[in-house]
Amino acid sequence: MPDEPTLGEIARRFEDRLGDVRDDIQQLGRRLDEKVDQQIYDLRHETLMARVTALEALREKDAEKLVATRRWLIGAVIIPLIGVLLPVLIMLTQGGGT
Question: Alpha-carbon distance 20 to 68, whole Å?
């Protein structure tokens, strides 16, 4: 009979288990309190989607501005520069050949 636990030991083990169960229930309660409500989640998701849409629109506008700037650079700077330098180069090459 020395292998069998006494009633006091059984009661102590039961109290330990009961304390563990109480701790688990308290932890579950805290986790449920931290859970986000579905409506709040949906509102946050809609807000995030609106921000992403706005950022995509801004990115497209920036891309269009970049294309417009390149076109302006080609039209206002490079083509007139070629128009000025090309006749000079032609005169230099023709003048050097005679």
Answer: 69
- The CA dihedral of 6, 11, 14, 19, to the nearest 10 degrees, is -140
Torsion angle of the four alpha carbons 27, 28, 33, 39, in this order, in degrees rounded to the nearest 10: 150
What six digits make up the tokens of 38? 């579905």
Each residue's pLDDT tens digit, 58-74: 999 999 999 999 888 88
Buried b (16+ CB within 10 A) or exposed e, 30-42: eeeeeeeeeeeee
For the whole model, what pTM was predicted?
A: 0.46
DSSP 78: I
